[in-house]
Design a protein that fits this description.
It comes from Cariama cristata. It is built from 17 helices and 5 strands. The chain is mainly alpha-helical.
Length: 399
């Protein structure tokens, strides 16, 4: 990202960034609409009720306000080294009010920082800021964008740093090339490990229609909608382009993280599909963070599915709310495994659905997560081809 931004003129990078964001937003909205149409048509939650499905795991404790504030905090990390390993996360801990006596013998009660009221009783919480394991991708991207623009404006003085990061990037790509040779062995063990962890295969039958709805949406989005957009704008064979991204898609399917797949995505886009490095290095890292078509589609389907399980009829306003919230939540979801479950709680809360019902779909999320990550990566890849086509004039002027 640093090398790509530094190689671009600041005005050019602004235009490229705007085109990429518009593409990301449009495809995400289309994915959400597709998911809503499918789940309303197929009705996977109508034949059964929530009580018929076993709950697995626990509900992620998260509030919309805390999630939004964490997003902003992570954009500006206080320690760049720490940002490579950890990200900031707000946690609410339930506290007991403690009592004591003052000097006059009166009873004192310590009040917690915040309070939260539930339907059953008033529960008291305190807000605790902490760091959790996971790369702060958003913070690193913001820093690299700013650093790249500044170094690019320094001209000759900043060329030493540009050359250094270009060489570092080239070395990383060569290491990735070596890893690709023995990656199939690792893939076998990753799949085997997940299969062994499955304790109740009956859950796949109970959630079969829900899984079919999600997978159908992902299939239509990745084989019809994205290729059609690419064909209309670029005027080239989208399926040949997708075949060039095969290694990246397989990697995404196995490790279920668009951020961890980035090195392979770079390699496929640049070496197999011959996309300009100035585009891939700028567009792909941003896309891995904010372009989550598969996640947005999944969250929309899951929210309506849970409403159907609870025998709740959603009106047009609630469906629109789900659509908007799923779009926004998917953008805020970091490119890490199962981030969709956390943002899922936000989507459910937005329309008054019980957040604890997210435990109904956790059992099959590990499988769906892999397929939606693959769609996310494919969307990022098509984005590089589309943005390159739209930015052809600016790139030629720079050459």
């Amino acid at each position: 990202l640093f090398a790509g931004v530094a190689a671009l003129d600041s005005s050019v990078s602004g235009k490229i960034g705007l085109r990429a964001v518009i593409y990301y937003f449009c495809t995400t909205v289309i994915a959400v609409i597709l998911g809503i149409v499918l789940v309303v048509t197929i009705k996977p939650g109508v034949p059964q009720t929530a009580s018929e499905i076993d709950r697995v795991g626990s509900t992620p404790e998260v509030s919309t306000v805390d999630a939004m504030l964490d997003l902003i905090r992570n954009m500006f990390p206080e320690n760049l080294v720490q940002a490579c390993f950890q990200q900031y996360k707000t946690k609410r801990e339930k506290v007991e009010a403690t009592t004591g006596l003052d000097k006059n013998g009166s009873t004192l009660t310590e009040e917690p920082v915040t309070t939260a009221t539930t339907a059953e009783a008033s529960e008291e919480y305190k807000i605790v800021g902490m760091y959790s394991d996971g790369i702060n991708v958003l913070g690193l991207i913001v820093f690299c964008l700013v650093f790249g623009v500044v170094i690019g404006k320094m001209g000759e003085k900043g060329q030493v740093l540009v050359d250094f990061f270009n060489a570092l990037n080239e070395a990383t790509m060569r290491i990735v090339q070596i890893i690709m040779w023995y990656m199939p062995i690792g893939i076998v063990f990753l799949i085997a490990g997940k299969i062994i962890e499955v304790e109740d295969w009956e859950i796949f039958r109970k959630l079969g229609l829900y899984m079919a709805t999600v997978l159908s949406g992902l299939a239509i989005h990745s084989t019809v909608i994205l290729p059609l957009i690419y064909l209309i704008i670029v005027r080239k064979n989208p399926f040949r382009f997708a075949m060039g991204m095969a290694q990246a898609l397989l990697t995404a399917l196995m490790i279920s993280s668009s951020s961890a797949t980035l090195p392979v995505t770079f390699r496929c886009a640049e070496e197999k599909n011959f996309i300009d490095k100035r585009i891939t290095r700028f567009v792909l890292p941003v896309g891995a963070t904010i372009n989550m078509d598969g996640t947005a589609l999944y969250e929309a389907v899951a929210a309506v599915f849970i409403a159907q399980l609870n025998d709740l009829e959603l009106d047009i306003g609630q469906i629109v709310t789900i659509s908007v919230t799923a779009t926004a939540a998917s953008i805020g979801a970091a490119g890490v495994p199962q981030a969709g479950l956390v943002t899922m709680v936000i989507v459910l809360s937005a329309v008054g659905l019980p957040a604890e019902d997210v435990t109904l779909i956790i059992a099959v999320d590990w499988l769906l997560d892999r397929f939606r990550t693959m769609v996310n990566v494919l969307g990022d890849a098509f984005g590089t081809g589309i943005v390159e086509k739209l930015s052809k004039k600016e790139l030629e002027q720079m050459d």
